């Protein structure tokens, strides 16, 4: 064996494992980069036999570290995160991930170490801070053949501060007079926004008794037309402020009742009613009109709309009955002549007409007897 084996007696890391005429084995423990090189095994026979082998020592990369991070970061600021690892041989590979999704747009730098055998590798990720990145986990992953498919990973959780995001949610998509409505102002920001401010048409709420603010919720009871307007919700935190608006339009209750109460009754009376069924149709309409107040008892609003609907139904059914009765009488209309009138058709005077009429009656009597 060459000079390395000659020095083995003074290096406790190198041991002779087996020696025979056919095999010579050594073991090296706690391998270092200095152990890399060519090893020669010589068997002193006649002639001398030799065999050579080159030992390659891999440099294991150090655990990576992420630098350049400050906490917290304001939304819109530029961030530069650098991941660095040293001692790899050959040079290690670095990859970036954000919430387990790989980031491709990064810079890669490789430098040779002072021992001229290992490398220091760094990678930089450059991006603008966004509110969607708040709480995201950024990880730097080092892959190297010496790690046996178990990469080294460094992680950093991002903390992004941003202005509030405001949204108004309504409890009633079609508010009507007399009803109530609840407007909820949802605000999300970091730090958490302060209590929100409600205004109407650029000023304070005009009716504090009906318009009650509880935290982020605005409740308005007994709606009327004066409540129409633009309601604004404003939220702020140390980073800034933001607001959103909701346009309230209070609708008339009559617009909702007309299609459900009047139209079905008119359709039934027009299509199916007859002289004989007019009474039952009217009774059905009356019964339906009687049930409607109970069905709408939970709603608040003026009664004149309901009364007007009932009157319209009664008037319409009455008109239909009169028209149908007139058509019935017209079909049975005709000319009816008495016996006296029949005798007077050709008579020159009244006496002759009476005589002719009596004669007709006699003839009628005779014809009856004759036929019997």
UniProtKB/TrEMBL annotation:
<comment type="similarity">
    <text>Belongs to the nectin family.</text>
</comment>
<feature type="transmembrane region" description="Helical">
    <location>
        <begin position="305"/>
        <end position="325"/>
    </location>
</feature>
<dbReference type="Pfam" id="PF13927">
    <property type="entry name" value="Ig_3"/>
</dbReference>
<feature type="domain" description="Ig-like">
    <location>
        <begin position="164"/>
        <end position="249"/>
    </location>
</feature>
<keyword id="KW-0677">Repeat</keyword>
<dbReference type="InterPro" id="IPR013162">
    <property type="entry name" value="CD80_C2-set"/>
</dbReference>
<keyword id="KW-0393">Immunoglobulin domain</keyword>
<dbReference type="InterPro" id="IPR003585">
    <property type="entry name" value="Neurexin-like"/>
</dbReference>
<feature type="domain" description="Ig-like">
    <location>
        <begin position="64"/>
        <end position="156"/>
    </location>
</feature>
<keyword id="KW-1133">Transmembrane helix</keyword>
<dbReference type="InterPro" id="IPR007110">
    <property type="entry name" value="Ig-like_dom"/>
</dbReference>
<dbReference type="Pfam" id="PF08205">
    <property type="entry name" value="C2-set_2"/>
</dbReference>
<dbReference type="InterPro" id="IPR036179">
    <property type="entry name" value="Ig-like_dom_sf"/>
</dbReference>
<keyword id="KW-0732">Signal</keyword>
<dbReference type="GO" id="GO:0007156">
    <property type="term" value="P:homophilic cell adhesion via plasma membrane adhesion molecules"/>
</dbReference>
<keyword id="KW-0812">Transmembrane</keyword>
<dbReference type="InterPro" id="IPR003598">
    <property type="entry name" value="Ig_sub2"/>
</dbReference>
<keyword id="KW-1015">Disulfide bond</keyword>
<protein>
    <submittedName>
        <fullName>Cell adhesion molecule 2</fullName>
    </submittedName>
</protein>
<dbReference type="InterPro" id="IPR003599">
    <property type="entry name" value="Ig_sub"/>
</dbReference>
<dbReference type="GO" id="GO:0032809">
    <property type="term" value="C:neuronal cell body membrane"/>
</dbReference>
<dbReference type="InterPro" id="IPR013783">
    <property type="entry name" value="Ig-like_fold"/>
</dbReference>
<keyword id="KW-0472">Membrane</keyword>
